[in-house]
């Protein structure tokens, strides 16, 4: 009997890791299918319901995503991950848009280096709240417009503008041959913060610093915490074992966060432990 229990727990853990890997690769449809398979075998698996809700929301299936997070709250009424994701979904339109491409930034982008990268809060956000359709970790595009910089999603969705002084500086450097990458780090109803990183400096721009005033006195550090982790993840106050990767989610401020799958001992998911799924960080 003990062997059967151990085997079942291992199977559940392995499937959770596989589902997490699919999410980290932005393979959302496959993630939906696998998490539903896990739920069929383990109906009270809170993490699987949360992962399912996240995958559905990434596909633009907001009504189904709400149902998945709602099921989490039926099992664990105090579950903070489900509650904050439902709050986020409530801000979005009920009309499902075309599935997002799921373009994610590389981890290197979130290692902030003095002078070469900076965190920027966008101005002139879209009045219809279209910026709420992106999530922390999503790659975004920088567009030269009127001597400044406009920020768009990979699908061309307008997200906002870089503050004029900084935008004009970066625009001049881009026109001179510099190249930059950018990604979302925080999404809220009234704000959208992105990280911009210089990836190539043209010889004509040598000696010109892209971000001269907004960096700390140190050299290199991780903008989203230490150690840097994959995008769109959820952590809380418990330690996360190295062989237990996280699920992808948002934290209270819209920052990237992670939550681990169950361990071997967690054959059932007691509601008293549900709120230990996250740990500040990233």
Please give the structural blueprint.
Layout: H1 2-24, H2 28-41, H3 46-58, H4 62-75, H5 80-90, E1 111-113, E2 117-121, E3 139-145, E4 148-152, E5 158-161, H6 164-175, E6 179-188, E7 191-200, E8 220-222, E9 247-250, E10 256-259
Antiparallel strand pairs: 1-8, 2-7, 3-4, 3-6, 4-5, 6-7, 9-10
Shape: elongated
Structural class: alpha+beta
The total beta strand count reads: 10
**Biggest sheet statistics:** 6 strands, antiparallel
Rg, please? 20 Å
Residues in helix, % = 25-40%
Unreliable segments (pLDDT under 50, ≥5 consecutive)? 95-99, 214-282
Strand order of the largest sheet: 2-7-6-3-4-5
General description of the model:
The chain is of the alpha+beta class and 282 residues long. Helices cover 31% and strands 20% of the residues. The protein has helices at 2-24, 28-41, 46-58, 62-75, 80-90, 164-175, and strands at 111-113, 117-121, 139-145, 148-152, 158-161, 179-188, 191-200, 220-222, 247-250, 256-259. Strands 2-7-6-3-4-5 form a six-stranded antiparallel sheet. Strands 1-8 form a two-stranded antiparallel ribbon. Strand 4 and strand 5 (158-161) form a beta hairpin. Helix 1 (2-24) packs antiparallel against helix 2 and helix 2 (28-41) packs antiparallel against helix 3 (46-58).
């Amino acid at each position: 009997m003990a062997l059967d229990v151990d085997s079942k727990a291992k199977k559940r853990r392995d499937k959770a890791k596989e589902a997490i890997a699919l999410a980290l690769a932005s393979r959302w449809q496959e993630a939906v299918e696998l998490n539903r398979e896990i739920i069929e075998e383990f109906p009270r698996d809170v993490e699987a319901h949360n992962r399912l809700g996240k995958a559905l929301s990434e596909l633009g299936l907001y009504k189904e995503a709400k149902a998945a997070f709602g099921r989490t709250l039926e099992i664990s009424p105090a579950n903070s991950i489900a509650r904050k994701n439902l709050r986020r979904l409530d801000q979005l339109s009920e009309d499902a848009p075309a599935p997002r491409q799921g373009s994610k930034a590389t981890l290197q982008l979130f290692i902030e280096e003095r002078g070469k990268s900076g965190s920027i809060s966008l101005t002139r956000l879209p009045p219809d709240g279209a910026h709420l359709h992106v999530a922390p970790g999503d790659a975004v595009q920088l567009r030269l417009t009127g001597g400044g910089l406009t920020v768009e999603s990979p699908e061309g969705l307008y997200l906002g503008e870089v503050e004029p002084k900084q935008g004009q500086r970066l625009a001049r450097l881009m026109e001179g041959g510099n190249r930059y990458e950018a990604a979302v780090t925080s999404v809220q109803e009234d704000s959208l913060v992105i990280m911009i990183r210089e990836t190539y400096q043209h010889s004509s721009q040598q000696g010109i610093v892209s971000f001269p005033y907004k960096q700390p006195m140190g050299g290199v550090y991780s903008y989203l915490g230490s150690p840097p982790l994959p995008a769109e993840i959820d952590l809380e106050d418990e330690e996360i074992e190295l062989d237990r990767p996280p699920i992808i989610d948002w934290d209270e401020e819209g920052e990237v966060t992670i939550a681990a799958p169950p361990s071997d001992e967690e054959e059932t998911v007691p509601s008293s432990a549900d709120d230990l799924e996250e740990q500040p960080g990233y």
